[in-house]
Amino acid sequence: MSPLASVRFPSTRSEAASAASACFHCGLPVPAGGLWKSQVLDEVRTFCCGGCLAVAEEICSAGLADYYGLRTEVAETAIGREETDEGLYDREDLQKTFVHRTGPHRRVSLFLEGVHCPACIWINERRLRAVPGVVDATVVYASRTARVTWDPDRVQLSAILASVRRIGYRARPLDASHRASFEREGSRRDTARLIFAGVLGMMVMNLALAAYFLGGAPGPLPLWETFGRWAALGGSAVLLAYPGQDFFAGAWRDLRNRRAGMDVPIVLGLAAAWIGSAWATVRGSGSVYFDAIAMLIFFVLLARAVESRARLSAAAALDVFATVRPAVARRVAEGGSETEVAALDLSPGDLVRIRPGEIAPADGVLLEGAASFDESVLTGEPWPRLRRPGDGVVAGSRNLDQPALIRVTRAGESSTLGEVQRLLERGLASRPSSAELGDRLSGWIVLAVLAVSAGTAGWWALHDPSRAVAATVAVLIVTCPCALALATPVGLTLAAARLAAAGVLPARMSAVEPLARADTAVFDKTGTLTLLSPRLAAFEAAGGLDGESARTIAAALERDSLHPIAVALAAAAADTPGPSAAEVDPEPGRGVSGLVEGTRWWLGSPEFAGGGLALSGRIESALGDARRAGNPAALLSDRRGRAALFVFSEELRPGAAGLVARLKAAGIRRFVLLSGDPSGAAERLGSRLGFDESRPGMTSDAKLDWIRARQREGARLLFVGDGLNDAPTLAAADASLSFAQAPQISRLSCDFLLAGEDLGAVVEARNIALRTHALLLQNVGWAIAYNVVSIPLAAAGLVPPWAAAIGMSASSLLVVGNAMRLRSAGVSGASERPSLRAGARR
């Protein structure tokens, strides 16, 4: 049945276009005879031309069937397949379903067809970035996706798609279901070719084995061997034409783009072996290498199948974020009526009903009904969160028990789920130096192999022509740039999936190496080692200032701040309407000042807000008690006698108590606490948790200076912080982690984001990084060592072509298999956390 059979069409002008006399797609008259027909929605629909039929099929197969529900006019007629693939996507109404607007620019995620190795990623990324008007383009190897940002005033999406087509690939707007279907179809095709290569290759190998054991007598070849050679000649030709066709297509694409890719030496080796063997068969004398051809095709296909399985395994985990968001939402009108709308059509301010078992389609604030939400797909934490009216609900979380009504705050790509997807894509696009080394060396190795093979052929032609073909073929086949190119992408992709499953979002995968090599862990205190929002535990006022006024003034001054103390002050005054503040002047690490109802107030540390003010006895006593207990305190004053002291109690984050011991077991040697809190609370907390050094009263500049000084001494630093003032330090550290709830500038400055609140995820991130770093070094080292040893041996004639085929394929299989160990590598606490896929099912 046609792909159109799954499309629902509105009963508007589209229905009129589906009449027998009008084209189902464009509405134009159908020529007599109605040659272009397809069964749609259990009835035969007619099209005016093959182009309209192709366009409609393309719309549905690309997952863009919503176009027919969104359009208010019938489509223009289609002229041919090229417009189907490219020009169609320039339509504004169709772009609503897959293009995101970011200011003057537009962004789209594209699925790339024809990509089968890291070199394909390299050339597609550079091709996209070279298109005039493209602002940025990053390609992710695991998912074969490209994220492209462009200026619509300078270039159209169709031109971007055409640029990919012209280098031999195909791009289309990303749809998770279409990609899954494409991958399944590709897997079935590859499996069929692998089986075919195995079955036919066994016949060719049997003929070769017979010659090995029964041949070798002087004189003309016996009739059975002659027949066997001709049979193997035909069998190997079929192997080259069907299972081996991708090698030739890839080599031709590489040469057309003036690039020495990994398929080039494979194709040259296969061609040289087959042509030399064919000539020996025709002559009736000389060596043949049909067995090597059969083995090479089978084992290379096997290696690529294993690599593809590893890549898809990681991509499946990362795809959870793309598939968990529901396609439709229940929007509630003013009168209470509900209407199903596309989730992409939601806007801030919309009211949405989420029934038990349904997934939140957007971020929002809960208005009615207390309900438990499973957020494990985002945080990796198994326990549901109880949300009450006024609490936030994040996109991608599943309502477990009660109907809930939310007011949308962020929808689409602006939601938390959208940010997570962008972070993962950005993180996978950023790779460590070992990955870059592999990419650079693999291209040079191909060129070096071509040069060595040419030299080998010339040397043996002069000294022993009978061995020239075998030695040259062995050199071309034995080389394994595939192993070097695959040494890091597969491992990094699997590591990213493991990190995401542990609730750690990799913003920059290039930081995996620094995280693994870090020897000193540096932590902020408030909001990092302690919970984000401390609780107001005590209050004292003086100078005629009452508690309600003090709380509203403090909340006004801190209204735009995300500092934990500010959040606690805002929560303390949540039920009391208050004034707004003007001329607010924050001083990081000290406090904030501003005008409230014409009076300037200072709020912050007693030294900052007091300004020489003589504090009352009760405030002095409460401040002393707070400092002795290690509780943070904030002073509010107008420096003319009115003052109030807010004392807060802090609670440790989950996982903080055993953090030092677990990180020591993971290889961290020194622990330092840097806090802006000037009291003794930082030192007491550091001593309690086992830190080697605690430094209170550190401003953001002081933290940054301390970090840089330690780096100059040779320390490799891991920094964990969450506040606005931690952003410079997060950016300066060798590796850094922050929280998903941190201010945006902190999230942009760090390398990894903790989606949950448990600091145990820091240990898991470290363990995954250690494992990943070790495996990447093993893979790169093995790939380089294998090529350094095998190529000279093959050039010396010590490696027969069949052994070269086994060695090359085994090298690739070893690299991919080693990387696959990341899927089951035990990390701290991993067994206590659900997988992303499990979280998506609940």
The helical percent reads 40-55%
The largest pleated sheet is described as: 7 strands, mixed
* Total helical segments: 32
Strand coverage percent: 15-25%
Let me know the number of strands. Answer: 29
**Uncertain stretches of 5 or more adjacent residues:** 1-20, 77-84, 826-842
Provide mean pLDDT, rounded. 76
Structural class: alpha+beta
Strands of the widest sheet, in order across it, are 17-29-28-27-18-25-26
* Shape annotation: elongated
* Cα distance spanning the termini: 33 Å
Radius of gyration: 33 Å
Structural features, described:
The structure is a single chain. With 842 residues, this protein is of the alpha+beta class. The chain contains 32 helices and 29 strands. The strands form six sheets. The chain has a seven-stranded mixed β-sheet, sandwiched between helices. A six-stranded antiparallel β-sheet has the order 9-8-10-16-11-14, with no helix packed on it. Helix 11 packs antiparallel against helix 12 (290-323), helix 16 runs parallel beside helix 31 and helix 18 (489-501) packs antiparallel against helix 30. The longest helix is centred in the first third of the chain and has 39 residues, at 176-214.
Layout of SSEs?
Layout (H helix, E strand, L loop, with lengths): L12 H5 L18 E5 L2 E5 L2 H12 L4 H5 L10 H5 L6 H4 L3 E4 L2 E9 L4 H12 L4 E7 L4 E6 L6 H9 L4 E4 L2 H39 L8 H19 L3 H12 L6 H21 L6 H34 L4 E5 L5 E5 L8 E4 L8 E6 L2 E4 L1 H4 L5 E3 L4 E2 L4 E2 L4 E7 L5 H14 L3 H31 L4 H11 L2 H6 L2 H13 L2 E3 L5 H6 L2 E4 L1 H5 L5 E8 L4 H11 L6 H9 L8 E7 L3 E6 L2 E6 L1 H5 L6 H13 L3 E5 L5 E7 L9 H7 L4 E5 L6 H9 L3 E3 L4 H13 L4 E4 L6 H6 L2 E5 L4 H6 L2 E3 L5 H36 L5 H20 L15 H6 L1
Parallel strand pairs: 18-25, 18-27, 25-26, 27-28, 28-29
Antiparallel strand pairs: 1-2, 3-4, 4-6, 4-7, 5-6, 8-9, 8-10, 10-16, 11-14, 11-16, 12-13, 12-15, 17-29, 19-24, 20-21, 21-22, 22-23, 23-24
